[in-house]
Design brief:
By secondary structure, this protein is an alpha/beta fold. The protein folds into 2 domains: about 55 residues; about 150 residues, Dna Topoisomerase Vi A Subunit, Chain: A, domain 2. Helices cover about 50% and strands about 10% of the residues. The protein contains 10 helices and 4 strands, in the order ααααβαβαβαβααα. The termini are far apart.
Length: about 260
């Protein structure tokens, strides 16, 4: 269209991208995703969500060329690895464990977790909540073995702390795929473990609050970058608090008896 600004993949644009990423870091996102950065860039002329693939390719090229350092962005489904620990590594891990905050239950006696669709957000959500709330991602698919082992860990914590059970809230993309992912995990957790998973977001109201188009689809990380770090933190804590208030009315009942999750 005449007069429409075109994104030129030059030095100036690279600096603009790095500045957008730094703004996210300054806000609290310790390891932003590429999509979070793109949503910040949408405020500038010429940028659209369609730039995601090209942005990903260009960032890869610039990293390989040494124009920007590695480690600036979260790499979802970035592989797995194991490296043997040195004596110093072991000592540092022991020191961190000494300072770790032990797991604890909510006031109602339940252990809460947050299910987030995108793996790249797992650490930032955990960090956002001061590593006091369990966070899990299956990266868009029901990975039964992984989820089973994680749920077993939760149940061991509940047993050791003599709690009432486990409950969770879900944060998935604002599209049909996200809702399907939520439904699948909700049904599986309820069937296998009797664990309830309540839908927290992303909802149309949250999309409106972020100033985004309700009729467009939005992925969590892009929406979250626009919605705001502190705002999301406050909302998540409130969501868990609301769940706690609801659970208090139930006393020591199994999680199967919890009310139907919102939007479910």
């Amino acid at each position: 269209m005449p007069g429409t600004k075109t994104v030129k993949w030059n030095d100036e644009t690279r600096e603009t991208i790095l500045a957008a990423r730094q703004a996210l870091v300054d806000e609290g996102w310790t390891h932003p995703t590429i999509r979070e950065t793109l949503y910040r860039l949408l405020k500038l002329p010429g940028w659209t969500k369609k730039h995601y693939d090209t942005l990903t390719v260009k960032l890869g090229e610039w990293r390989d060329a040494g124009l920007i350092p590695f480690g600036l962005w979260s790499d979802e489904t970035g592989g797995n690895d194991f490296t043997p620990l040195t004596t110093r590594d072991i000592a540092e891990r022991i020191a961190r464990l000494r300072d770790a905050v032990p797991a604890k239950l909510s006031k109602d006696g339940y252990l809460y977790f947050i299910f987030v669709e995108h793996e790249g957000l797992t650490y930032d959500i955990a960090n956002m909540l001061d590593f006091t709330v369990a966070v899990v991602s299956s990266q868009g698919q029901l990975r039964r073995e992984h989820f089973y082992s994680v749920a077993q860990q939760w149940l061991r914590v509940v047993k050791e702390l003599e709690g009432n059970g486990v409950q969770g809230i879900a944060l998935v993309d604002y599209d049909e795929g996200g809702r399907s992912i939520y439904d699948t995990h909700r049904d599986w957790l309820r069937k296998i473990f009797g664990i309830d998973l309540k839908l927290y977001g992303v909802t149309s109201e949250q999309v409106k609050a972020a100033g985004l188009a309700v009729h467009d689809s939005h992925q969590i990380d892009g929406w979250a970058a626009t919605y705001g770090y502190q705002r999301l933190k406050s909302d998540l804590l409130k969501a868990i608090g609301e769940s706690t208030t609801t659970s208090k009315k139930r006393g020591k009942k199994t999680s199967k008896e919890s009310p139907q999750e919102s939007g479910g």
